[in-house]
Design goal:
Two copies of one chain form a homodimer. Chain A contains 25 helices and 21 strands. The first copy, chain A, is of the alpha/beta class. The first copy, chain A, has three domains: 295 residues, Thiamin diphosphate (ThDP)-binding fold, Pyr/PP domains (Rossmann fold), CATH 3.40.50.970; 154 residues, 3-Layer(aba) Sandwich (Rossmann fold); 143 residues, Rossmann fold (3-Layer(aba) Sandwich). The longest helix of chain A is centred in the C-terminal third of the chain and has 23 residues. In chain A, the strands form five sheets. Chain A has a seven-stranded mixed sheet, with helices on both faces. A five-stranded parallel sheet of chain A has the order 2-3-4-6-5, with helices on both faces. In chain A, helix 22 crosses helix 23. The interface between A and B is large, with 119 and 119 residues.
Amino acid sequence: MSMTPLLDHIQGPADLKDLSAEQLEALAEEVRQFITASVSQTGGHLASNLGVVELTIAMHRVFDFARDRLVWDVGHQCYAHKILTGRRDVFANLRQADGLSGFPDPEESPYDAFRVGHAGTSIATALGLALGAQHRGTDERVVAFVGDASIVNGTNFEALNNLGLVRRQLLIVLNDNSMAIDVTPGAMAHYLARVRLSHTYEDLRKTTQSILDHLPVIGRPMGEALENFKKTIRMQISPSRLFESLNIPYFGPVDGHDIISLIELFQALSDLDRPALLHVYTRKGKGFGPADTDPCRFHSTGPFEIRGQSVEVAPGPRSFTAAFSDAIVDVARADDRVVAITAAMPDGTGLTAFREAFPDRFYDVGIAESAAVDLAAGLARKGLRPFVCIYSTFLQRGFDHIFQEVALQGLPVIFCIDRAGLVGSDGPTHHGLMDIGFLRMLPSMVIAAPACESEMRQALMLAVRSETPIAIRYPRDVVRNGRIDAACEVGPFEPPHGRIVRQGRDPIVLAALGPVLDRALDAADRLEEHGVSVTVFNARFAKPVDPALPEAVAAGKTVVTLEDHYRIGGFGSAVLETVAAGGPAGADGRVLCLGVPDTFVPAAERASQLDAAGMSVEAVVQIVLAHCDAAHKSRFKQTL
Amino acid sequence: MSMTPLLDHIQGPADLKDLSAEQLEALAEEVRQFITASVSQTGGHLASNLGVVELTIAMHRVFDFARDRLVWDVGHQCYAHKILTGRRDVFANLRQADGLSGFPDPEESPYDAFRVGHAGTSIATALGLALGAQHRGTDERVVAFVGDASIVNGTNFEALNNLGLVRRQLLIVLNDNSMAIDVTPGAMAHYLARVRLSHTYEDLRKTTQSILDHLPVIGRPMGEALENFKKTIRMQISPSRLFESLNIPYFGPVDGHDIISLIELFQALSDLDRPALLHVYTRKGKGFGPADTDPCRFHSTGPFEIRGQSVEVAPGPRSFTAAFSDAIVDVARADDRVVAITAAMPDGTGLTAFREAFPDRFYDVGIAESAAVDLAAGLARKGLRPFVCIYSTFLQRGFDHIFQEVALQGLPVIFCIDRAGLVGSDGPTHHGLMDIGFLRMLPSMVIAAPACESEMRQALMLAVRSETPIAIRYPRDVVRNGRIDAACEVGPFEPPHGRIVRQGRDPIVLAALGPVLDRALDAADRLEEHGVSVTVFNARFAKPVDPALPEAVAAGKTVVTLEDHYRIGGFGSAVLETVAAGGPAGADGRVLCLGVPDTFVPAAERASQLDAAGMSVEAVVQIVLAHCDAAHKSRFKQTL
């Protein structure tokens, strides 16, 4: 017999209409079981998805998101939504090549409005959709679904501030799963937590009833209904105060696991003729013991083994994140000017150990990348050495702040850019393929790309010594030991200098930036077999470019650059620019650039993404061989 | 006799200590007169500076900003500050080459903490400074000075949300000059305006007295003092509600032109042991009739002639902004899908006429560039054609949103990027030298650079037809008529195609992007005199690159690129990449790239900034001649 008898009959949201209250509750349990079992196989986001099952069912029961629009914030909590909208059967391929995206994706389903993955954008985007409908005079409904950790992002605040532009329906669902004051930083989280602590479960039921009593407002002015609703709500701390200051009609808080009440609430709120915010309490990780107790651990997870209510996770090989984690603790121990800043990702960026060792030198500003950068600038101005630890893709949010507050002031802020390059299963929203491109336009910026653990440590030590801004980029990948380690361990790590790690006899240099060095070394081995002896160069820095590279070109050699970044604007471009700047007599040789082509790269294994980007060892070998062939023909032509 | 007898004796803030109350008030008038007279000669920001004279004097009387730190938001309101800190004598050179910056600049004075120009950063930066002092255990005081138009920026909100990190003094001065609900958009402005309308001038005096009665709080818990203060404040709408929700101790509102009270308030607040916000009312343009009546007109102005209380401004030659302004109105008239979005700059971006013609199709979201981009994405998803009009330098704030909400979805949002390139007198914070670099990394993005008015119109028509994102960049410059206009008028404006506007006989192509085309044409004339006949190419698009350029290189020609952008990452790099991508046999000729070198460019006339960047006509001529010479020698060498 199936473990999920009800879910088996849900082909789409329309099938929810026939279910009874009891069946809907049972369905929620089935969905939760399905998610847990599925994520234990594939890895993925768990805790957040378990928390929003009832909410998702209730929304789909009331709205028709084939026509109505549902905009997720971040989007990692969309699994129940995917399951209910016909994508259950492909869940086994979650976050895999040609499989289901871990985030909403309109190319997958008409039920997905936007392809997202970054936080802070749902309200502004939904605002645009609502204004679009307002222009067009269409009546589809718009829902923005945002968590308490994302609503504090500056862009969401900017959107809340502009909600008054909308003169039609627009519902913001605030999914508040703040577990305690300590976990989510910031004043708004503190405020929400105080609100939460100030009332009982019974209060939530009364609030729900009060909302339902006063809505729908057909034939009655909204203001009056709201006033009546507010009069019946008597909590110690008014949850509406903050939102009302911004003129946002506020309803709640209500229980996010009471599926029947939620359906009634959505029915009542779905036809309001103005924007409104519904504040819903949920529990992250609900229903699966380990995730319920430790939701941080199960925010994003690899595959794991369920043993009753406990789990076993196989430890992975050592990652760049782990290497960074150890290195920054050591660097901070030796230099008390070192402080570290994260934007809501202490785990992901490898700062947990640092936070434990130096609680007073650690700042988590929440999902607020731009403020994190400015904060670091202030700290640096006071003589400290702030390490700003933000994934490459999210650092895009701080670009202008890196420009104005850091680079323009020439301040020694250190950007530790994890997930630089292709990231594998998170897919196109999460790749870090532009950091070299936007950072190297900034005068005074140094960009380092350590290829191994030893270089990671040296890069951090260099950064602490630096009096100007520096960025250190490294991928979501394991740190290789053995050959690459030995190859890069020699010599001081000092801009602009890269290192020759293998001297060839032919006039061809493979110049690799970062850990793709291993592919260059493998290609060199294979080329030896073809009788071609290339030099392998560990570039170490994308900015400044080692003058050895344009010199090699000027001497008639061919430089082949390899990088885990868009070919546009990356390290290869930097080398091309340096060669071109050599002037009329600058280039007798050639530069060939390998990197990620000009497309959005879908989810897959990271290694195969690099292969598909034209950087498989075989591809590198073939490019060099083709070049040798062409160069030979060209020499032949000249002789004629 | 001097018009400014008191000001004449102010060499630095210390000289304020000896002045009586009457003298301080008289000094404020003198400073105002000095600013008005000075700006009428040099141009600059006027209205905002006239509004904060008393505030500035009061701050300098209480704080010592050689040691204490004052962080301005945007910074265009720092003139009185500069005048009082020893820079009055050089005010005649405001915003000129080797002159005084129009914004704070630590290189000018130890009284300037940060070099700024963009909005939204003061609170986060001050937060960093305060945390730095907290770490170091030093007792200098930190003040963030922020206007009501900037405090709504998302980064400021993120910083307010994190104010709890600070356990020492940090004063935020909210300079509220909102003139009416209509002028500044957004809920917070509406809230502040309602607060403002809900009380009388007498209320402000009572509030001030109440603050002074309850502070300093030495020996008394801050919470108690605050409670007592609040009890005595009885306004219709509580001005503190919004800030208190975020746990920010709030004081005010108080009168920002009552210099004596301000001094007492700053004295009382300067020693608080925690962050606080002082809400101050000022009048933009105060004391100078025309600026008082029309502060928008006098926000940023060129030189003008004062005739009593009226002014005369000489109309300038036709600008790209004016060309855009007319073109978008025409395009919108022909296509009702066109809507326009600005981030608080309807005048600057040339949208005033559009707003008048199509009030329902115009959105001003305030200083909220990232939300503006998301909003546009939502509108585009609904079938509209949103034109997002943001200066190049401020568009940096929306980079990640352009990536995720627009490019990743492939939505037809149109970015109209004014002030792209060197901007002249506003200096390094305001140049738009990176837009090509960050935008061209985005797959599917088209980047157009019209060289003349006719191409501006064609670019807008192309944009409306486009089904994918497109950016149109143009400088803060006049639209040239005559030759350049005639040269670029021919042929359809369609990516990737540029146009040969002058066919030469020698194998040299000057490929210019945008209006620097005029310099290429002039250089071609001059080269003719040296017996060199070059081809001039109007590139029109930075992405995609016209294949004619790599083909020219493959055919052995030399392409010299010219662009008003950093050489790093710009159009020249795009050409280099395209040539390199041609493979081993791709390049027989050369590419030389002219553009702005890797430095921060100080304020000066725009034309001389382009000259200094190596793009004077003479420099272009010399580079081509040097190249011809080298190429000749190289051919000679081969013959041997």
